TrEMBL record:
2Fe-2S ferredoxin-type domain span: 2-79
GO molecular function: 2 iron, 2 sulfur cluster binding; metal ion binding; oxidoreductase activity
InterPro entries with a match to the protein in the record: 2Fe-2S-bd, 2Fe-2S-bd_dom_sf, 2Fe-2S_ferredoxin-like_sf, 2Fe-2S_ferredoxin-type, 2Fe2S_fd_BS, Beta-grasp_dom_sf, Diverse_Oxidoreductases
Keywords: 2Fe-2S, Iron, Iron-sulfur, Metal-binding, Oxidoreductase
Protein name per the record: (2Fe-2S)-binding protein
Highest taxon above the source species: Bacteria
Lineage: Bacteria, Pseudomonadati, Pseudomonadota, Alphaproteobacteria, Hyphomicrobiales
Length: 153
């Protein structure tokens, strides 16, 4: 077991974990933040997406021991404490969620996209949004991202 100090949503958390424990499970089971979801376990679906120092990262396959001291981990719970983030509002405006399972990962991937590229084209959205939605709401996801970005057309 390792004693780790993780900065999660701006708060330093001390956790004990085996070095190979995926960050996802540390966040869910030890830190108590269950908004980040388990989908596939092989970093393919994106339900587990969090930000590490602003970069969208699939947490299900990242050993917690690879998170460096001082790196900031942002989960869906830290995106906005009152759901006022432009993406969260756009998600509601466009009725993006169906079953909702993938939505926290979708929102985190979209937030990283807009942080890096505030006015993405449809092609750029398609290239960056690689999360899987089994309900198939991809057109709504794109429309919500465009709304949050203030992109029309």
């Amino acid at each position: 077991m390792l004693m780790l100090r993780l900065t999660v949503n701006g708060t330093v958390r001390e956790v004990d974990a085996e070095p190979d424990t995926p960050l996802l499970w540390v966040l869910r089971e030890q830190v108590g933040l269950t908004g980040t979801k388990y989908g596939c376990g092989v970093a393919a679906c994106g339900a587990c997406t969090v930000h590490i120092d602003g970069v969208a990262t699939r947490s299900c396959s990242l050993p917690v021991s690879e998170v460096k001291a001082g790196q900031n981990i942002l989960t869906i719970e830290g995106l906005s404490p009152d759901s006022s983030h432009a993406l969260q509002k756009a998600w509601l405006d466009h009725d993006v969620p169906q079953c909702g399972y993938c939505q926290s990962g979708q929102l985190m991937a979209a937030a990283a996209l807009l942080a890096a590229n505030p006015k993405p084209t449809d092609d750029e959205i398609a290239a960056e949004m690689t999360n899987i939605c089994r309900c198939g709401t991809y057109n709504r996801v794109r429309a919500a991202i465009r709304q949050a970005a203030g992109v029309t057309g």
